[in-house]
Amino acid sequence: MNRMRMRRVVGAVAMLVMILVPAMVGGGALADDLTVDEIVQRTEQVAYYQGDDGKARVTMTITDGQGRVRNRRFQILRRDQDVDAGEGTGQQKYFVHIKYPADVKNTVFMVWKHPERDDDRWLYLPALDLVKRIAAGDKRTSFLGSDFCYEDISGRSTNDDRHRLIETTDDYYVLENVPKRPELVDFARFTMWIHRVSFVPVRVEYFDAQDRKFREYEVLEVATIQGHPTVMKSRMKDLRDGGATVLAFDRVAYDLGLPEGIFSERYLRHPPVSYLK
Length: 277
Known about the structure:
It is a single chain. This protein has one domain: outer membrane lipoprotein receptor (LolB), chain A. It is built from five helices and 13 strands. The longest helix is centred in the N-terminal third of the chain and has 13 residues, at 36-48. It is mainly beta. Strands 6-5-4-3-2-1-13-12-11-10-9-8-7 form a 13-stranded antiparallel sheet.
């Protein structure tokens, strides 16, 4: 498998977190008088730590600037552990089983996500019957040839940016985020619209060094599943080339009691079929 294809496969983990990103968290009241740090902390908790575990089937539809369409399908399992209930942070494990297209079918990607250090990653290539350890890759590269990049979905560290509350509307906190090390990313700043009840970022706009908007993320559809209102469809647009990628989720389930053991090298060659149905 060449380097480009490996990056596309590695990028499948980007779906890991989007499994269970809720669009609303219950019907709570508006939170007032929060500091910027508190808003950022609550947003991170809601976006990445809903339920103790979860699974979903994901269909990705990629449309390029000329209207050509490609599809990707995979299934994801996620398990949290050692999560700080107050801060909503902790270690997570992910298992991604790729179903389509044919050139990567039955490839498995597994991630152990660590808040304070680089993630551990494994890739199983069925054609070679080979398990490979993968070093931390480029977080701003495309995954599965889509308009999303790894960092869009797996989660950018809140410590990597300076955050400023620039507006509060009836429904949203609007935050401007500026990278502390701009040389490592392809944007100069990004703006997030965070729902004041759910603390879910429902829209994100990215601007380049000339302050031109070049990427745009938007939540399109939500549903409540097991008490967790959940993003069921989202879209990322590349405003430079006219491309767009839509992520659609189904068969979403939370709090399955997934055993920690299935997130191990043993199951790369023998996926836990009963949990991937």
